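ok, trying the design again with the full structure, not the truncated one.
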């Protein structure tokens, strides 16, 4: 069902101001934006409905009765019944439109057949364009401040609970579509202040938010640092979400992750054909934890970290790095925990043929954005933070997937 319009609208507006400045004119127009929008939309909506019903009456278009399923083509099986008002909220304010009513002669039901063609949803006041603008404000600020912005800048009153529901409904329409030709995947997780209340009454303080992205390529935009093109393929919150975040496929050849224990068996089972590259930057960075656990002093910990960093990132061959790495492990008799951690990582770093990506720095940048947004406001539910970040990341990296969310 497609409605179209091609016309010229003439508006007659009375403007009465004592002192005319650009500021006074702007304030006058802003205060009357809903009235101006109504004056523009009313004739256009009326004309679009009339032209479409005229086409149905002439047999050039079809109209389906949603009550009985009869397809009307021609003017004998239905009759026009005037119009009824419908109030909708737009980004220009709250306006009232007249929807033409028709009665189906087959079932006797009266309805507004043009509502779907106009992109209006039953029992929904907010238009899709307003919903998108409201939801996108929540990506960077709290629900409360987003509602204030809507009221102050759009003249639209929306409750924070309503905006929260709109975010959840919008996220439910997201369908991520991975690039079938991409061979490089990165995955990582970060703790967020979220969690559900347990039966005992206690509440989980933090949950792990996990991301997986494809590295599509890099573009040189006349800058010293080429821009990476990423594509989101999975996002989840909770301990057992890696099967959802990384469902597995047969085309991926390289997966880059940190040393999270749950990732090792999952990647081995779901991506048996892929190389599992652990982030080589994290190897030295996380060495501090097992060293401190075994009572190694601060100065010695820093010295050992610097030495390991120089081994991994020095200008040597992979064989030389491997030999120095193994020797370094043997000299760490002061910390059995550190020896165990480095031995566990040994088979997934310093490959004879270096990987195209050896760190998770690209996805770490995404995690910083997650952390920044998750710290705004109070505690999150796992569903709430998951849906909000899914929409936010989809808008940034999956443009086509995000556009489908807002299609009528």
């Amino acid at each position: 069902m497609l409605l179209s319009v091609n016309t010229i609208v003439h508006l007659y507006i009375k403007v009465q101001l004592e002192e005319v400045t650009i500021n006074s004119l702007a304030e006058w127009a802003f205060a009357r934006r809903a009235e101006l929008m109504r004056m523009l939309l009313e004739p256009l909506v009326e004309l679009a409905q009339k032209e479409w019903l005229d086409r149905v009456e002439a047999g050039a278009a079809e109209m389906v009765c949603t009550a009985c399923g009869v397809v009307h083509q021609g003017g004998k099986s239905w009759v026009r019944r005037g119009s009824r008002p419908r109030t909708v909220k737009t980004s220009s304010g709250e306006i009232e439109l007249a929807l033409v009513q028709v009665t189906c002669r087959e079932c006797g039901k009266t309805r507004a057949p043009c509502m779907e063609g106009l992109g209006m949803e039953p029992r929904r006041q907010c238009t899709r364009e307003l919903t998108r603008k409201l939801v996108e404000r929540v990506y960077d600020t709290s629900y409360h401040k987003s509602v204030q912005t809507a009221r102050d800048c759009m003249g639209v009153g929306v409750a924070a609970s309503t905006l929260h529901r709109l975010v959840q409904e919008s996220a439910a329409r997201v369908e991520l579509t991975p690039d079938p030709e991409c061979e490089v995947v990165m995955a990582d997780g970060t703790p967020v202040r979220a969690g559900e209340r347990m039966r005992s009454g206690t509440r989980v303080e933090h949950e792990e938010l996990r991301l997986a992205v494809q590295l599509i390529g890099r573009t040189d935009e006349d800058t010293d640092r080429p821009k990476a093109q990423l594509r989101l393929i999975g996002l989840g919150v909770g301990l057992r979400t890696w099967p959802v975040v990384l469902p597995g496929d047969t085309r991926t050849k390289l997966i880059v992750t940190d040393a999270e224990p749950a990732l090792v068996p999952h990647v081995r089972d779901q991506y048996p054909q892929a190389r599992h590259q652990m982030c080589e930057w994290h190897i030295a960075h996380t060495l501090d934890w097992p060293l401190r656990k075994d009572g190694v002093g601060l100065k010695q910990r820093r010295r050992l970290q610097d030495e390991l960093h120089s081994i991994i990132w020095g200008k040597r061959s992979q064989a030389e790095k491997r030999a120095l790495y193994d020797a370094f492990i043997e000299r760490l008799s002061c910390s059995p925990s550190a020896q165990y951690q480095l031995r566990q990582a040994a088979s997934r770093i310093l490959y004879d043929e270096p990987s195209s990506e050896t760190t998770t720095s690209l996805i770490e940048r995404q995690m910083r954005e997650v952390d920044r947004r998750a710290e705004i406001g109070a505690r999150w539910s796992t569903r709430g933070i998951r849906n909000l970040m899914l929409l936010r990341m989809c808008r940034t990296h999956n443009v086509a997937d995000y556009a489908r969310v807002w299609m009528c």
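Keeping the full-length input from now on. Residues 29 and 388 are 34 Å apart (CA to CA).
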